[in-house]
Amino acid sequence: MAENILLESPVFNIEAALKAYKYGVDRLELCSSYPEGGLTPGAGLFTFLKSKIDIPIFVMIRPRGGNFVYSAEEVEVMKEEIRIFSSLGADGFVFGILDKNGSVQKNPCKELVDLAGEKPCTFHRAFDASADFKKSLDDVIDCGFKRILTSGGKNNVSEGLPVLLELLKKAKDQIIIMPGGGMMPELMEPMRETAYLKEVHASCKKIERPGKLYENEEVQFSTAPLGFNENLSVDQKKVLHFKSFF
To answer: How far apart are CA 56 and CA 13, in angstroms?
Structure first.
């Protein structure tokens, strides 16, 4: 049975990143734009965090929200982001590219993995948007990725558990299958029984309201799920709950 399971948390701001580190998260996936599911973060935020914490930070490389079919120009931007964050000390990268038919677009993926060099790459939940999970698994392995972040092709891990169990058994030690997307500690046990569960991805998030701020109710700055006086943070109890299962 797998031991020493690693907990990765996606973070979208300074506060969440510092709290995740303080509470015992093993690795951060650094993103921007929570409402869009994660986009490439700012270099300044990354540099600041690298000066404050000593756990690995994987950087999301995603130039826009929406689908995962990217133009040649967007792929060039992704390459430049990898170059920049590599020079700043990124520990790994998170990205994924599909074609219009829902298959892994192998050539640009390989180019990005090669550009990352020794820094490990995660194929993110673009995998869940692919048309054939078994073929996509083989393609992602062939591209050189070290792990796949997936909810089993469903909205959350609970719904996708049967597919996740199949993926863990098929992948074995060829690549890490990292369940994520509505991940809950109690879902770990059946995956641990496959003997191939090594990492989990969980936000452990909570919404904090730091205090009453003046707010002009006639102005709306965002359609995001977070209000003007709400911050996305990390819940220590949720982190400790996950860690108690490891």
So the answer is: 16
Domain spans in the chain, listed from the N-terminal domain onward: 6-243
d(CA 46, CA 217): 33
pLDDT at residue 222 greater than cutoff 80: no
Q: How far apart are CA 221 and CA 242, in angstroms?
A: 35
Superfamily the domain 6-243 falls into: Copper homeostasis (CutC) domain (3.20.20.380)
- Identify residue 246 by its one-letter amino acid code: F
pTM given for the model:
0.93
Per the DSSP assignment, residues forming a β-bridge with 149 are 178
Res 223: pLDDT = 63
Give the integer Cα–Cα distance in Å for 129 and 132.
9
Paired with 95 in beta bridges are 123
CA R_g for the chain: 18
Q: How far is CA 51 from the centre of its chain?
A: 21
Distance CA 64, CA 40 (A): 8
Amino acid at 96: G
Per residue, what are the HEC states of 151-193? CCCCCCHHHHHHHHHHHHHHHCCCCEEEEECCCCHHHHHHHHC
How far is 207 from 185, CA to CA, in rounded Å?
Answer: 20
